[in-house]
Amino acid sequence: MPVSAIDDSAPGSSSSPRISEWVAQQLLDRISRGELVPGQRLPGERQLAEQLHVSRVSVRAALQTLKTQGFLTAVQGGGTRVVSSAGVMDGALTAMVRGKHDNLCDLVEIRMALEGWAARRAAQHATPEQIANIGRILAAMTQTSGDGNRAADDMDFHLSVAQASGSPVYLHLLATIREILGNMVELNHTEPYMENHEALMIEHHRAIYEAIASRDADGAVAAVTAHLGWVLARYHAMSVAPAAAPESESTDSASAEA
After folding, report:
1. Domains located in the chain, CATH noted
2. What is the pLDDT of residue 162?
3. 234 has pLDDT over 90
4. C-alpha separations of 187 from 136, 205, 223, 235 in Å
């Protein structure tokens, strides 16, 4: 039952702390249910106060509490958004991946397990609207050229599957490594070490979409595993590809031979 609006702005009010704690818990519940996701901007104080039937004073106190606890952060220009730990997590992961090729491959294998699980959940729980959204993004991937738009659509595809999984835990986990995942997706579209790699990428994503749309949970896992197994093979190919000689060295060598 909603809490009635109370004028808790009066000094010495004993209601204000209890109401602001209740408001903070309501917002935390929305985050845990995935209604509010990392990076998302919250409604304004007035709108939240109307939704929760409390005063703006209580909302303001609740927001300040959640900011202090690290769940929310202020947005430049006004407003509040849900915090993502992407900065710290991505920085550490990027350093590890850049420093050792095996770590990059480990990350792909971890993605295989997590994204396979998410695809299974999506096949089981996605709404018709979520499935249609995945299909729209796939259609956009087939129409964009290799100018960077396809990489963005690719990332959106994976995020839409995450949304369709219905798991706020997975959404938050994904948000912590979103930047490095974006870098990995971009690499897949800018380093064509295999013939027809763009066409294969589309077919892999189509297989994932079709399995989810047909509610084939096992097929969705198999499609994700096949796609990321292919990505893993490409990364291994990159590690053994001969590096091009620096221009200065080739010029010096040519001069010496002449």
Report:
1. 15-82 (1.10.10.10), 86-240 (1.20.120.530)
2. 93
3. no
4. 23, 16, 20, 10
Give φ, ψ of 148 to 5 degrees: 105, -25
- Measured CA to CA, the distance from residue 81 to residue 39 in angstroms comes to 6
Residue 16: alpha-carbon gap to chain centroid: 36
Q: Which one, of 198, 192, 212, lies nearest residue 143 by Cα? A: 198
Provide the pLDDT for residue 13.
42
Rounded CA gap, 166 and 31, in Å? 13
Q: How many CA atoms lie within 13 A of 138 on its CB side?
A: 20
Both tokens assigned to 184: 């990995």
Number of Cβ within a 10 Å radius of residue 217 = 17
> Nearest-CA neighbor of 9 among 46, 57, 52, 49?
57
For the chain, the average pLDDT equals: 79
Determine the residue type at 185.
Answer: V
What's the rounded Cα separation, in Å, for the pair 21 and 16?
9
Query: Residue 191 pLDDT more than 90?
Result: no
